Amino acid sequence: MKLRNAQTTIIIVALAFVFVQCGGKTENTVTQEEETVATRNQETLVAEQTSIDEVTLELNAGDMLQFDKTELRVKEGQEVTLTLNHTGQMPKEGMGHNFVLLKPGTDIAAFASEALNARENEYIPEGEEAVIVHTKLIGGGESDTITFTAPPKGTYDFICSFPGHYALMKGKFIVE
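Structure (tokenized):
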């Protein structure tokens, strides 16, 4: 019995020693390595953000009358590639969506009222100076991609100009 208790004690002490020794060193090494990797990743991200002249944005809209993002951020002068995806299933005649970027100070309600009469132009009033850029009108399962240069610094409104959608389908396009 004494031998068995002694062996058990030795095993417990040995395991505790290994646990403390390995656990301590492994934890410190991993933590140090994780900090180094995190620092490098952060430095790379900052470097990429300050040197990129292009940005790709994706905006989704479904049959529930809402964009999945209400704020988009870009840098002044960047080449912006924006893809609008209609994630719903309804056709564009009944639940069409578009992305319309408006100039600052645009009366959104007045613009939307004019858009009502522009069905033949996918609800974008012809000759409208308030529009900076827009996608085509798309239905369920469709996408449209546009590329444009980010305007000067400021906050711009974006909407869907399909009749009745602008009240819920809107957001801010922030240029830094």
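Helices lie at 2-51, 92-95, 108-116. The chain has two domains: 1-51, 54-175.
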